[in-house]
Amino acid sequence: MKTNLRHVPHLRAPFWCFNGHVHTIARSLFGDTGQPPLDGIEIPTPDNDFLELDCHIQPDSDAIITLFHGLEGSTERYYMVELMKVLIKNGYSVAGVNFRGCGSKLNDQPRFYHSGETNDYQTVFNWISDNYPDKTIGAVGFSLGGNALAKYLGETGDDSLVNTAVAVSVPYDLRLGSIILSKGFHRIYEYRFLRTLRKKLHMKQKQFPELPHFNGSTIYDFDDKVTAPLHGFDGADDYYEQCSARRFIDSINIDTLFIHSKEDPLCPIEAMPLAKINQNPSTDYIITEQGGHVGFWSKPRGWLNFIIENYLSSNL
Question: What is the pLDDT averaged over residues 9-20?
Fold first, then answer.
């Protein structure tokens, strides 16, 4: 049964946030990055690698909320930090997940992370279940992290270890998202992503000389020449087709909320599978008229995190 969202407050943006690019960039530049008290924890993966978690565990909390960041993000990104602080203030435990190579150091295996890496999600949820069996699990994913979260929920169905979830600014169609990044003003985002991806690849090549070399100029090129072969896909198109969140929506069996802006400059609203979300009794959505990609500058501030915390508390 869908949660009643009729009384959700509308996003009110200040006058100077006149499009999705302004929301996205302003929130990124001026968001809060001062992390709350966190314990850094390394957990092993089945393939002899590790994941870095930043946790704040409150012994008397009933639930632990797991947070997953976006492409080339980390637990230090403003949207992770701000949500952590809201959740901790409201009595939750939190576990922020750094994808492989996105924490304080590079991971040990040649592989990186990608938009459909759900085995690492299972590893994290297993660790939480084993170490905190008295706590229910909530999950929040942003952008790439939201795509992989939706994929995990669809793949696991009734066997999901997550009780409720929220996914923000999901790239429901990975191919379309990569194409948009290579056009016009969007190249500014692509340049930023590629700069850090190239740097990590070069660092890893010192340890693993057999890794693919990359001389392309787009995210599609990187996914085609590096991401896909490193993770067992037959090129970028195969990777995008197998991992796009739109394929998994109808198999989600836990209460899940999708949040998206009509002005999202990176993940177009046209890719959002509204019919599937509407037809699934476990999934619901909020679409805002204003807002950017992950960045929602609101007046008063804090609209996005209020919505997330309110949905989690209603379903946990």
Answer: 92
